[in-house]
Specification:
It is built from 17 helices and 22 strands. The protein is an alpha/beta fold and about 500 residues long. A 6-stranded mixed β-sheet has the order 6-9-10-3-11-12, with helices on both faces. Strands 18-19-20-15-21-22 form a 6-stranded mixed β-sheet, sandwiched between helices. It has 2 domains: about 5-240, P-loop containing nucleotide triphosphate hydrolases (Rossmann fold), CATH 3.40.50.300; about 260-495, P-loop containing nucleotide triphosphate hydrolases (Rossmann fold), CATH 3.40.50. The longest helix is centred in the middle third of the chain and has 16 residues, at about 175-190. The structure holds adenosine-5'-triphosphate and magnesium ion (MG).
Length: about 500
């Protein structure tokens, strides 16, 4: 029996009447990647927030290297050797890499208590090399680096603290393909150095690649802990949702109709090649490419969230004058953003208002009063369809888990009755079961005669749900493939060609 590094026994946590953790048991061994897997709202983030001292526990015990411990604050967690890489990175873009690494624990010259920059830079270079990076990055301004490298700075911070356990909550969800590979290598290396990792992810391929053991949470209970090597993803899904999942991609074939949406000579940024594209009724068009390929920029320009240089937008054959997001909505465009926190939701308003907010007109009667009953009904329908948990439309958005917030963003746009739906990474952070519901809703939209465009970095999802895929690379469309002819390799090639 290996002595666990961390052991959690019968952990309970409630938010008022919402019982979120109901006696969770699990343990983490030194030098293992321990995955927490569970549906949206199962309690994963809450559990790790307790382990890092951000939340207090109601009941239960935590043991560290065999000794009972109390973790009351984030500082106490750091002191015993637990570090966390949150999804929203905790870095300052204006500072250099080494300044970020040493933020709050600067090395000083003892005599004059001046900052010892030279020593900090040296130490930062050492850490960067250990993480497989160019040491010269140490003095680079952090804001100039990509998400992947910024995340490495967080990991370097954990190493400075000599953390024995590093917790990563959906760390790959905002990384590009290459950055993801790099993170995998670093996780492997940390494990080789004897560091334990708690890894939260909804991507089953990733769990297979990285995980040693998985603890499955269902509805606040720890259902089981299994070895990755001796179990299959289908078995994990069954433990997670309590039943097996018949089909991951409920693709339906509709008859391809007329062109419903077009871009003509559309230039997002000065100097870029103009984009021309047509999307037909009856098809789902995927846009693939690496993070930074210009996909989100294109969507934002269509929605006029950012100004475009030139070009026309046609819906159902008619040119639409769109100069700002209001006009885009009026023209019938829905843009479901990937960034639910900053663009999607009003966190301190209840779900029903969040869902109906983009379309208040629909719920305003002749008396100019809001039809609250109709709003609640509409919101409730979508919340049921998308399996939002808890299914209480009166709770403020802030109180929902990450994946459930994403579902509310989707519901909000469905409610607008738009003609053109542009989904940007719609299933990011959404669990396997609920993903299927999102795909079904896309089918319904196509069936109702809507234009559906899906930007996604998830290749299986593109191949599983789309009829056609466009690949973008540095602001250009480098491939346009019918799905029947598209392969992962081809898409990757078009996404990286010339880079
Ligand atoms: N601050 C809070 N106040 C009230 N309820 C909360 C709060 N934070 C979380 N909850 C509730 O706790 C439950 C678990 O949420 P948690 O964020 O732990 O889920 P999760 O497993 O991380 O889900 P996801 O996969 O969507 O990230 C949810 O029902 C959520 O509504
Ligand atoms: Mg979470």
């Amino acid at each position: 029996m290996i002595q666990p590094l961390l052991e959690v026994k019968k952990l309970f946590k409630s938010f008022s009447s919402n019982h979120v953790l109901k006696g969770v048991d699990f343990n983490v061994r030194p030098a293992e990647v321990h995955v927490l897997l569970g549906e949206n709202g199962a309690g994963k983030s809450t559990l790790i927030k307790i382990l890092t001292g951000a939340y207090s526990l109601d009941k239960g015990e935590i043991y560290w290297e065999g000794q009972p411990v109390k973790i009351n604050t984030p500082i106490e967690a750091m002191e015993i050797g637990i570090a966390t890489i949150y999804q929203e990175l905790n870095v300052i873009e204006e500072l250099t890499v080494y300044e970020n690494i040493f933020l709050g624990r600067e090395l000083k010259n003892s005599r004059f208590s001046l900052l010892n920059r030279k020593q900090m830079i040296e130490k930062a270079k050492e850490l960067l090399v250990r993480l497989g990076q160019n040491p010269l990055l140490a003095t680079e301004t952090l804001g100039n680096l990509g998400m992947g490298q910024q995340q490495l700075v967080e990991i370097a911070k954990a190493l400075i603290l000599e953390a024995k356990l590093i917790i990563m909550d959906e760390p790959t969800s905002s990384l590009s393909g290459r950055e993801v590979e790099q993170l995998y290598k670093i996780v492997d290396q940390l494990r080789n150095e004897g560091i334990a990792i708690i890894f939260i992810s909804h991507r089953l391929e990733e769990i297979q690649r990285l995980g040693d053991r998985i603890t499955i949470l269902r509805d606040g209970n720890s259902i089981d802990t299994v070895e990755v090597a001796t179990t299959t993803p289908d078995e994990w899904i069954e433990l997670m949702v309590g039943r097996s999942l018949d089909e991951k991609f409920p693709k339906k074939d509709f008859e391809r109709g007329e062109v419903g949406f077009s871009l003509r000579d559309f230039v997002v940024e000065a100097g870029q090649e103009p984009i021309n594209l047509d999307v037909h009724y009856g098809e789902i068009v995927g846009i693939s490419g690496l993070v930074g390929a210009g996909r989100t920029e294109l969507a934002r320009a269509i929605f006029s969230a950012d100004k475009r240089v030139s070009g026309k937008i046609l819906i159902n054959g008619k040119e639409k004058k769109i100069k700002n997001p209001r006009q885009a909505i009026d023209a019938g465009i829905a843009f479901i953003t990937e960034d639910r926190k900053s663009e999607g939701l009003l966190l301190d308003l209840p779900l029903d208002l969040n869902v109906c907010l983009a379309n208040m007109k629909k719920f305003t009667g002749r008396s100019r009063l809001l039809d609250l009953k109709a709003m609640k009904e509409q919101a409730n329908n979508y919340i049921q369809d998308l399996q939002v948990r808890p299914n209480n439309i009166e709770l403020n958005a802030r109180h929902f888990s990450g994946g459930n917030q994403q579902k509310v963003v989707i519901a909000k746009w469905l409610c607008t009755n738009a003609d053109v739906f542009i989904f940007d990474e719609p299933t990011r952070g959404i669990d396997v079961g609920a993903k299927v519901e999102v795909y079904r809703l896309m089918n319904t939209l196509v069936d109702e005669g809507k234009v559906v465009i899906m930007i996604s970095s998830d290749l299986p999802e593109i191949l599983g749900m789309c009829d056609r895929v466009l690949v973008m690379n540095t602001g250009r469309i480098t491939a346009d493939l019918p799905i029947a002819e598209a392969t992962q390799e081809q898409i990757m090639k078009a996404a990286t060609i010339g880079l």
